[in-house]
Amino acid sequence: MARLLRNICIVLLLCCVGVIRAQYVKVHKVQKKETVYGIARMYGITQEQLKQANPVMLQPDYQLKKGDLINIPVTTNGDSQNDRTIFAVDDVRQRPIRMGVLLPLHLQNNDGKRMLEYYRGILMACDSMKHEGISVDIHAWNLSEDTNLGALLPQIDAAKCDILIGPYYNKHVPTLAAFAQQHQCLMVVPFSLDIPEIVNNRYIFQIYQPSDDLDDITARRFAIWFKDYHPIIINCSDANSSKGGFTSALRKQFEKDGKMYNLTSINSSDLHFMGAFLKGIPNVVVLNTENTSYIPQLYKRLDTILQQHPDVQISVFGYTEWLGGIYAQQSHFHRFDTYIPAPFYTNVNSPQTIRLLQRYRWNFHQDMITIMPRFALSGFDHAVYFLRGLHKYGMQFDGAPGRFNYQAVQTPLKFERVSHGGLQNKAYMFIHYKPDFTIDALNY
């Protein structure tokens, strides 16, 4: 009997040992200001699990240092055919995701009205996530331009947010970025462009890139996409233009590639203007201003060329700002085979967009503001993307391509890390208005 009991105990012990085992399948390189608590939370494990995987952490004088390589355990059950992750008690993948929204949510000016619409898009996304089994505990604060953010921080701290969306104004970025880093929660900055903190703060996700970065990227991509075209840069003498940086970057790229291009003026004589165009190869025209008031004059001049020389091939390369006047210009865009670089695109005729426009009207008893981008659609895209990411990957979600399949309604997202700091969205499109009156959104 004693021997039988001893054998039973051994079997039970072996079973218990087999229930949980650790496989060290990932190595993490420690970044500046990271902590044991933060790394454990990032990977959805307990501090004790992390320490057991790294025995050096059990020493009384242990200190985590930048550059250290540490094991990240993935804990599974004993059945190799049915492995499952054993989640930490407070793993964001196993409870409602706590989201904080800090934006100007009021009706006093256009900033508030647009961000209120953006927030409504977030609410619509949270409602949609219920059908995927994703619950959200959402908190919102009206962070207007004159709000004392320091006075709000205790409330944000009490909410224990996993992800913060905001702010809108650049002046609030440093304070909120420091808070996100201290509390190791993700911070999604939906519109601000001036974020120097992103170089050192790993918790920041920046949706829109600074204009200087976009100028360089667009110039490089232009050179590749239009390598078989003859470029023509047209000077509009617009003192208020912000596109001098882009056309300068474009000319430098042409000179680097040894590519021929021509310069002319929107006000030059017909003979000089026509002389900038070549026959036998397609020409692509670039204005040195985003000001849409110059577009009708450009089209008039291009019409004159085609009337006199119908064999000349012409395409136009525009700017994101032109999308704001799309309803007035769309037929011209198609006629002149127009390409517009943009980080967003709204196909108002797609079934998904139509459904969201209807849902917005039903839920809030009004239509979305008819400007580009549609702010409610931006809020919907951003919220769906990050909620799915947190639900699937926990706090280690980095927004890299291929993490999951999501077809954006308006704003594609594809993040890359900036040095050892945060992440910037590098998704980019050329919106092509084709002569057959179809539109292609070319991810590039």
Word description of this protein:
It is a single chain. The chain is an alpha/beta fold and about 450 residues long. The chain has 13 helices and 16 strands. The strands form three sheets. The protein has a seven-stranded mixed β-sheet with strand order 4-3-5-6-7-14-13, sandwiched between helices. Strands 9-8-10-11-12-15-16 form a seven-stranded mixed β-sheet. Helix 4 (about 110-130) crosses helix 13 (about 375-395), helix 5 runs parallel beside helix 6 and helix 7 packs across helix 8. Mean pLDDT is about 85; it is low at about 1-25 and about 75-90.
Major sheet: size, sense and barrel closure?
A: 7 strands, mixed
What name is given to the CATH topology of the largest domain? Rossmann fold
Structure class: alpha/beta
From the alpha carbons, calculate the radius of gyration and give it in angstroms. 27 Å
**N-end to C-end Cα span:** 74 Å
Helical residue percent band: 25-40%
Report the uncertain regions. 1-24, 75-88
Please report which band the strand proportion falls in: under 5%, 5-15%, 15-25%, 25-35%, 35-45% or over 45%. Answer: 15-25%
Q: Strand sequence of the main sheet, in spatial order?
A: 4-3-5-6-7-14-13
Name of the CATH architecture of the largest domain: 3-Layer(aba) Sandwich
| Count of separate structural domains | 3
Order of helices and strands: HEHHEEHEHEHEEHEHEHEHEHEHHEEEE
CATH class of the largest domain: Alpha Beta
How many beta-strand segments?
Answer: 16
Q: What would you give as the CATH superfamily of the largest domain?
A: Response regulator
Q: Write down the overall geometry.
A: elongated
Give the helix tally: 13
Kindly report the average pLDDT value. 85
